[in-house]
Amino acid sequence: MRYAKMFSLAAGMVIGSISLQAQTVNEILDKYTAALGGTDKLKAIKTQYTEGEMTLNAQQGLKVPVRKWVKQDQAMRMEFDIQNTKNIQVVRKDAGWQYMPVTTNQNVEEIDPAVRKLMQPQLDVTGELFDIAGKGKKVELAGKETLDGGEVYKLKVTTAEGLNGFAYLDVNTFYLVKATNEIDIKGHKAELITRLSDYRKTVDGYAYPAQVEQTTADNNVKIRVNRVEVNQPMADSLFEKPAAK
Fold it and tell me: Any signal peptide, and if so, which residues (predicted)?
């Protein structure tokens, strides 16, 4: 009987610890959502348009104007001007195409499925950690760490597809300031590190990072966001693949 009581006590402590962690994660995620503008604002987002400048360090710091249109959870179009050419990439739920004359290819082509899969998160502008249940994600608290001299919550994120990554939230602002993910393109695996900073707010109170940097072992890309518009009309034709000439 004594052993049964000890087992019950130990089990209760474990269950209590799990419940406490879940509560803590939920509290952190609730504050993250509030920091971005709140549940109602995020759920109300239908479209987002952004303008900025992309710096490609692999091309000796080349600066490229970039524009992006997103229909929430439906489609994304990105345009960037380089070497006197306008280049376009479009990704939808089940398809993607690109027109990249900078490569001297004048044809509209399908985007490689592996690349399209990596670009799918860009269809969601509500935030990586918003409505995790609806997106089939699982989030666990992995502790605290120090990042750039400040404390951050480290969260382990498992997607609906079973992919793992880590998200780091500032303990004071609850903004996402770093994310790490393993990517795989045609058998080539790499770690993608995303840093987000200089958060600002639109006129309607939606917070966004004005500085985004993505790094792998082979490349480094920085994007400076200069303009964000939410819920402006957006034509479906932006995402339609041009007819073959």
Answer: 1-22
Structure-token match 């793992």, residue found: 164
- Interatomic CA distance for residues 86 and 227, integer angstroms: 19
Cβ proximity of 111 and 91 under 8 Å:
yes
At 80, give phi and psi (nearest 5°).
-145, 140
**Residues 175-206 pLDDT 10s:** 999 999 887 766 677 788 999 999 999 998 99
- CA 163 and chain centroid, separation: 14
Q: Which two tokens stand for residue 163?
A: 């992919």
- Note whether 192 and 214 are within 8 A (CB): yes
Residue 44 CA to residue 61 CA, distance in Å, equals 37
What confidence tens digit (pLDDT) does each residue in 131-143 have? 999 999 999 999 9
Buried/exposed 5-43: b ≥16 CB within 10 Å, e otherwise: eeeeeeeeeeeeeeeeeeeebeebbeebbebbbeeebbe
Helix segments in the chain, DSSP class H: 2-36, 39-43, 113-119
Smallest CA-to-CA distance from 46 within 243, 237, 236, 242 is with 236
